[in-house]
Design brief:
Blueprint (H helix, E strand, L loop, with lengths): L10 E6 L1 H18 L5 E7 L3 H8 L6 E9 L13 E4 L9 E9 L3 H11 L5 E9 L12 E5 L5 E2 L15 E4 L1 H5 L3
Length: about 190
């Protein structure tokens, strides 16, 4: 039997309010614009979680920007832990050979999925490949990841909102919040 979901009641704490996210995304956009000055850039979003972040970020970048989307899976349904096994569900639509590529992520946790994606994308011969993440959770890191553009470093808590989900819910929240444990322990 599934329980009724109350998006706001399931949040134990608002970790990053909407205005803090908006300000940080604008700051990241300025940094990226400066770093790639005068060069076209391809943004690659890792679906589904990074889509709101990339949509806001690309509007803050004052350069010619092309976007592409990938979808990968390393979590199973309502799990809060990565399986460590990465599957590419949707690959890039166009070649990135010879292009400056910025991989846009919602969150870097263990680093296992991103480590796989970095190796995979480097095999497609981009001119450069850098990483931009909204959230970085270094306490859970199992693999060293070179983060070029970082929004926020967050504690080891299960967060949802602004694209991040649990069981495909909570993505539409305009903030990042800590999910109450009972919201995900009931799902097991």
């Amino acid at each position: 039997m599934s329980r009724t979901v109350d998006l706001h009641a399931d949040i134990g704490e608002v970790l990053l309010p909407e205005d803090a996210i908006r300000d940080k995304v604008a700051e990241l956009g300025r940094q990226i614009t400066a770093d790639y000055a005068g060069r076209p850039l391809t943004l690659v979003s890792v679906l589904k979680g990074s889509l709101p972040f990339m949509a806001d970020l690309m509007r803050q970048i004052d350069l010619p920007v092309r976007i592409d989307l990938m979808e990968v899976s390393s979590y199973g349904g309502t799990s809060t832990e990565t399986s460590g096994l990465v599957r590419i569900i949707k690959d890039l639509s166009a070649s990135i050979a010879g292009e400056d590529v910025l991989l846009v992520e919602d969150i870097i946790d263990t680093g296992l999925t991103l480590n796989y994606l970095i190796r995979y994308l480097r095999g497609k011969n981009p001119a450069s490949l850098k990483i931009c993440t909204l959230l970085d959770k270094p306490a859970r890191r199992l693999v060293e990841i070179p983060v070029d553009f970082r929004g926020f470093e967050i504690p080891d808590q299960f967060v949802v909102g602004y694209g991040l989900d649990f069981g495909e819910r909570y993505r539409n929240l305009r903030f990042v919040g800590v999910l109450r444990p009972e919201a995900y322990s009931d799902a097991k």
